[in-house]
């Protein structure tokens, strides 16, 4: 009967791969079912292939140009490129791919443990498949780099051990080796064809590193496993074959560290850590991760960032305890090498994120669940082996029940974690609920709410962000923007200036301060701020545009035209600049130039009613009233109920000789806005003219 016999598989690794794989796949899909309903969050759009990279030629840029993608992981971004060809921008496809990759990684993990003779191999695979600490990597599309690189990592390890041990499978008697090796690799059809196992392993290793650089720890991990298996390491037999891998790993690690600094901004005050501080982080982080593995509750996306103080004696307990634990495990190595091997695999896989190198995420926390996605494998292997030994004496039914309860608890925790990634607002609100001082979550939630027009809520989130991180110039700037959006340019000034005190070279804040001053009628001060923004950031199209607006307000149209043209030289698709260039040209008497500018604005933004209205007025001035009527009517279809548009349409209709229709438009304008005398005056004048006109 093709069922997974837990008691036998836990204690003796008897379940064949063809029976274990469906159980692992079904359990993974069940636990992660909520993730399949989720959308995109946080920086997912930075990983899902951008429009300019989607053509076939985009692959060349993905592989050949650093900075073309969020991080230089070309194997990962090739996978995203292929996925976009399959399901475009549908989030379901990406989530399903990530869940399936995680299930595949869990299955490969079970195969590897079985190949190495680790007791409870399939239990270890299920622990990995269902453990809640993996949810961050699986439910977050951006972390496909974890699931994909781990698949390649484990495939490389399987191929390497096939090459290393030949027909010896887990030290079994020679009569069983061939059959056992074939079974451990998942059956004869799963073997690697056409390449030697070593070359295949090397290819998988390169793909793993090109998916995520943490896979560069694999050659060291292989040596740890070889030491665990053999009790010693030989230079020619064990170390020499891995030297090319170590060289590739070192190059990948150094390159990734440079990319983190150069392209992701992993430098500055938040990363100015002393050597003692880095040692404290490195000593504390493994205990944190181990704690979440043993007791996966209160998981959070943004864990609190520790205050690392070398002067606090208690903080040195963590690194000293880590060293003491390793020393104790070393002393008992002759009795049991497994615990030391698991600890070395755990710490070694975490090494890139232990604080010795700058990682962008350190700006908000020194730890994250997705950092231990790969590292947890060693601990889970040890846990599975220990559980298998403990359950072996028990009756089969009791062993089944114990395993079922454990896996159900883990799966339920994973199911619950997936809900936090439902959509962007849910994600940020879950993050601040888990950690109220998660300043980045408050800040990003404020940006989201402001984009949705929920200005009051956005202001509250920016205030919370500044409570958690007072020296955050971006939050001061965006709080000021939200205040200005809510019609409070005066209070906004104080926050713009606070932003500039924190970051004097913040060109965007200078530009925004200029906007607030312009709104208050303080045009001379606004001009000075725009000029400073352009000095700090030459080629800042928005600052040129805003400077043009204030110059136009002051009647300095030739200077305004020059600024609008400069903004458009820098940013040719700047529709608002085309519109205001048209306004300035019209006011300067260049109606033909204005018509051309409005036309370009409408080509870029065809549904903008103000531009249509401006074009209509210019056409009226040129004596082209019939053409103008069509523009005003289109503007009214886009923005019904505008008294200005009704009035201007009335003018055009009058110019086209359609007086009764013009009267109706002036009457509607006066009805919509009875407080504007011009509408009533136009209506009265036209009615008077109509009375004087002879009947047809």
Notable traits:
696 residues, Serine Threonine Protein Phosphatase 5, Tetratricopeptide repeat, single chain, elongated, mainly alpha
Overview of the molecule:
With 696 residues, the protein is mainly α. It contains 35 helices and no strands. Among the domains are: 13-211 and 289-297 and 367-421, no CATH class; 423-538, Serine Threonine Protein Phosphatase 5, Tetratricopeptide repeat (Alpha Horseshoe); 607-696, Tetratricopeptide repeat domain (Serine Threonine Protein Phosphatase 5, Tetratricopeptide repeat).
Overall helicity:
55-70%
Low-confidence regions:
1-11, 169-194
Q: Report the sheet-strand fraction.
A: under 5%
Give the total of beta strands: 0
Distance between the termini: 98 Å
How would the global form be characterised?
elongated
| Overall average residue pLDDT | 89
What Rg is obtained from the alpha carbons, in whole angstroms? Answer: 33 Å
Structural class: mainly alpha
Largest sheet: none
Total of helices: 35
List the helices and strands and how they pair.
Blueprint: H1 6-12, H2 17-31, H3 44-47, H4 58-64, H5 74-87, H6 91-115, H7 121-130, H8 135-139, H9 144-165, H10 174-184, H11 197-209, H12 218-230, H13 235-239, H14 243-262, H15 275-294, H16 317-331, H17 338-350, H18 376-391, H19 396-418, H20 424-434, H21 439-451, H22 455-468, H23 473-485, H24 489-502, H25 507-519, H26 523-536, H27 541-553, H28 557-570, H29 575-587, H30 591-604, H31 609-621, H32 625-638, H33 643-655, H34 659-672, H35 677-692
Provide a short characterization of the protein structure:
With 696 residues, the protein is mostly helical. It has helices at 6-12, 17-31, 44-47, 58-64, 74-87, 91-115, 121-130, 135-139, 144-165, 174-184, 197-209, 218-230, 235-239, 243-262, 275-294, 317-331, 338-350, 376-391, 396-418, 424-434, 439-451, 455-468, 473-485, 489-502, 507-519, 523-536, 541-553, 557-570, 575-587, 591-604, 609-621, 625-638, 643-655, 659-672, 677-692.
